[in-house]
Design a protein that fits this description.
Helix content: 55-70%
Number of helices: 13
Strand order of the largest sheet: 1-4-5-6
Order of helices and strands: HHHHEHEHHHEHEHEEHHH
Largest sheet: 4 strands, antiparallel
């Protein structure tokens, strides 16, 4: 009996001790904060990884937008500079023609004045009382006839003609060069500001059938896409046309502007250097009329077509005219991590992706921007005002692409060969599959931007 009682007592003591220890363990909170802090650190670490990866993707988008904006503005600035230089050249042409016309007009007027003094002298016979003007002007007239007049006809006219032809050649050169110069500027600026490649629409003319297009054609043809179809056939060009020769002559209507000031200065210089009746108001007044009228036809016959100025066109707000004064820049940055490392970071269930062709897995970030060069001022642009400047404008105004009749995908097809050339020039995209994948990536993206969707960019 005693043995059994002893055992029961021991068990009761052990049970009581175990219960007390359990209650003590449950009520002890030492280390709980450390466990919570550890859990919070794990969560914060995971959030930081997500933010880092998200920031990396956002950085790529910012880089491509910065590259697109810089490229678009630089391209527009180059074109504005060319437009201003061509307008300055028009002014130089007009100055040369004005000098010719003033001499021609004033000489014709002085001839008439000299004949007038002769007639007046003869009319006063037999006393010849009105011959003083005729006698005074005779040495002046024949001195001019055998001196400056011959020099003007033989030397000055040839020099004027050579100068006008040189100025016209310069205008032709700038008109042909500027689309490539501006495109190259966009390519370089875009590449220096974070893009793998930047190119613009409309493209410059010249390389659609060259070897640089093969990479783009091959890539897209593997997806049954032919970039020779569904294109716009629009090429880049300055909005200029050749005016008429008579436009370079200063007329009565031009006397209230800068041309009138230039005319007045030349007139004062001419009168100051003239002698006898050539400086008189009768000859000067008649010379002004001849300078502003009949002298122009003489200039047209002497200088020919190079005398004509380059005139700005595309002055309306139509979609077609706006496109002539702007370029849409595509900027692209090849980012393999987007489909590789960054995607694999968030695979909950590990699985292997079977890639049937590398072309399906092109990856990257891309953006659009649009630069425009415009005439700054309250009046419409004219051939004599170098007031062109550049700005960034919305890629699309409401309904603009629908009015134009082309979509973003057709535009991408137009510039694909030039993007291939740009990759060669900048040394980007050495992996053929990566370049091909990029082409397919942009093909899919531009197809999504139809003319209804792109209105959202306005």
């Amino acid at each position: 009996m005693n043995t059994k009682s002893d055992k029961s007592g021991i068990l009761a003591i052990m049970r009581s001790w175990a219960l007390n220890r359990g209650h003590a363990f449950n009520s002890n909170q030492n280390g709980a904060v450390a466990i919570l802090c550890l859990a919070a650190c794990i969560i914060l670490f995971m959030v930081s990884l997500v933010l880092y990866d998200t920031g990396k993707i956002a950085r790529n988008k910012i880089d491509t937008q910065t590259a697109a904006d810089t490229a678009a503005y630089s391209q527009a600035a180059v074109k504005a500079r060319s437009m201003n230089m061509i307008m300055y050249t028009n002014v130089a042409k007009r100055t040369i023609v004005s000098l010719h016309n003033m001499y021609q007009g004033m000489w014709s007027a002085y001839q008439i004045y000299y004949l007038y003094t002769l007639v007046k002298c003869l009319a006063s016979a037999p006393y010849f009382t009105d011959c003083e003007d005729f006698i005074d002007n005779t040495p002046v007239y024949f001195g001019e006839l055998s001196g400056d007049r011959d020099k003007f006809k033989d030397e000055v006219i040839d020099r004027y003609k050579d100068e006008i032809e040189a100025l016209d050649d310069y205008q032709t050169y700038m008109t042909d060069l500027t689309p490539w110069w501006a495109w190259s500027e966009a390519l370089v600026r875009g590449s220096r500001n974070g893009a793998s490649i930047a190119s613009s629409f409309p493209p410059p003319a010249g390389i659609k059938d060259q070897s640089h297009t093969k990479w783009a054609k091959n890539a897209l043809q593997q997806h049954s896409i032919n970039i020779e179809n569904d294109t716009t056939d629009i090429t880049d060009a300055l909005p200029l046309e050749i005016g008429e020769k008579k436009d370079t002559c200063v007329g009565f209507g031009d006397l209230w502007g800068p041309a009138g000031i230039e005319f007045l200065v030349n007139l004062i210089i001419h009168q100051t250097r003239s002698e006898e009746g050539a400086a008189g108001m009768m000859a000067i007044g008649l010379g002004i009329v001849f300078t502003l009228t009949t002298a122009c036809s003489k200039a047209e016959s002497r200088f020919g077509d190079p005398m004509a100025p380059r005139k700005p066109i595309a002055n309306s707000d139509s979609a077609d005219d706006l496109l002539k004064k702007s370029n849409i820049v595509f900027s692209y940055k090849h980012t393999p991590d987007t489909r590789g490392k960054l995607r694999n970071n968030y695979n909950i269930i590990k699985q292997e992706y079977e890639v049937t062709t590398p072309l399906q897995h092109g990856s990257g970030a891309w953006n659009l921007s649009r630069g425009e060069f415009f005439f700054k001022g309250d009046k419409d642009p004219d051939p004599w005002s170098p007031g062109w400047t550049a700005k960034i404008r919305p890629v699309s105004l409401q309904g603009e692409f629908s009015e134009l009749g082309h979509n973003m995908n057709e535009m991408f097809h137009d510039i694909a060969p030039y993007m291939g050339l740009g990759m060669k020039l900048t040394g980007t995209g050495s992996d053929t599959n990566a370049k091909a994948g990029d082409a397919v990536f942009l093909e899919k993206a531009t197809r999504a931007l139809d003319n209804n969707v792109i209105n959202g960019l306005s």
